[in-house]
Task: structure prediction
Amino acid sequence: MNEKPDLRIKKTYIALNKSFEDLLKQKDFDDITVNEICDNAMVGKATFYKHFSSKYDFLSFFMCRTVNECINKVFDEVITGNLYEYYKTFFDKFIDAFKEYNYNFKFVDNYTSMGIAFSPVNNAYNKMLSQLENCYSENNKINGFMAKYLSMALILIIFDFIQSGSHNTDETKESIYFLLEKLFA
Result:
């Protein structure tokens, strides 16, 4: 039997996320305190620490939710039968959606950001790889190893985009288009 998530917990997470979003737009992560997050959210510190061990633990939760939200939004919006156009549109929309958040995660090193965002991005990678393997098993344009290699390169570009802080949209999209052309040539 599936249990419904407690409404109080949902409200707490929504309030903490909103507070953290607002603070991230005003200052660097290192300058944000748990007290500020809780005060802005009108959530007690004891409640915060009941759910998260530290602000870094909360950051992991927050980034995972943000990346997952972008990926789900984009997969729901992209409709096309052509895989090249599908992934070109997917990555365009993902980059634009993530850029809308206007968060600065450049303080997080590559190792940490990859660890934090691994689960939702890995889900996108698995979905992409499955589609590519099905496509290429039908027409034998590329072997499975190359599909994995190029798919991982696309995912690493997304990790770099999330972590870079500069969010150089044009450069990121150009890199993705280059790889997509190689993948679907």
Remarks:
- The CA atoms of residues 92 and 185 lie 19 Å apart.
- The chain has a mean pLDDT of 75.
